[in-house]
Specification:
The chain has a single domain, classed as HUPs (Rossmann fold), CATH 3.40.50.620. It contains seven helices and five strands, in the order E-H-E-H-E-H-H-E-H-E-H-H. The chain has a five-stranded parallel sheet with strand order 3-2-1-4-5, with helices on both faces. Helix 5 links the parallel strand 4 and strand 5. It is globular and about 50 Å long. The N and C termini lie far apart (35 Å). The mean pLDDT is 85.
């Protein structure tokens, strides 16, 4: 257990394994009374992740806000939000996985999280971008984080910092960190297809399975195919 840091923080919580690990990390560092989670409903097919986010916050006793951002699916179409687009299968390195990019999503989510943080007089916004995201998702790159960090500091008289503590490690490393905090990965969701069971074939599932294998941890989520 770390010495509790002062000040409030806002965690952008998708309900996936990366942001949930970040939530546990923030809880350990700041204490439950100082951690506020925010999630976004942007009409994603994998809405089960929002249920997981709610369940994790309830379990940990953390304040949780879910924001309706369904308009994002109208202005920034993607395989993640459009019923007439199939979620591609295969590894993230494949070119077709770019269909899962929701254009400018992170800037929108982070901006709203920053507004929430400013209203709370919180000191930081935390989000769980990691090194495996950078090639496929432009708004997870270090340059993006650095540029938006400066922008957010200029946006209000109350200065809020943007922090992405996982940006230089991969998903496997995140699971290893999660073990130290006792993260309940059964309350996380990664599959993009929005079914009752994880498909085991989309890029997100493939990367998750590889992460648990690297960490030597059993994935508690049930799959159609592994």
């Amino acid at each position: 257990m770390n010495e509790i840091k002062k000040g409030k923080v806002v965690v952008i919580l998708s309900g996936g394994m990366d942001s949930t690990t970040l939530l546990y990390k923030a809880l350990d560092e700041y204490g439950s009374g100082n951690v506020h989670a925010i999630s976004f409903d942007y009409n994603q097919k994998h809405r089960k992740e929002l249920e997981c986010a709610t369940a994790s916050c309830r379990k940990l006793g953390i304040s949780h806000k879910v924001v309706d951002l369904s308009v994002l699916s109208e202005v920034a179409p993607s395989a993640l939000t459009r019923d007439d687009w199939d979620v591609p299968e295969g590894h993230y390195a494949d070119e077709n996985m770019k269909q899962t990019v929701v254009p400018n999503r992170n800037m929108v989510l982070i901006s709203l999280a920053a507004s929430y943080a400013m209203g709370l007089k919180a000191k930081k916004v935390l989000y769980g971008a990691h090194s495996g995201d950078h090639d496929i998702y432009p708004d997870c790159r270090k340059d993006f984080v650095d540029a938006l960090t400066l922008t957010i500091k200029l946006a209000d008289w109350h200065v809020v910092e943007l922090e992405a503590p996982f940006w230089d490690i991969d998903k496997g490393d995140i699971v290893i960190i999660g073990k130290t905090f006792g993260v309940d990965y059964g309350l996380t969701w990664t599959c993009y297809k929005g079914k009752e069971l994880a498909c085991g074939k989309c890029g997100s599932c493939v990367e998750r399975l590889e992460a648990f294998e690297k960490a030597g941890v059993k994935d508690p989520v049930k799959y159609e195919v592994k």
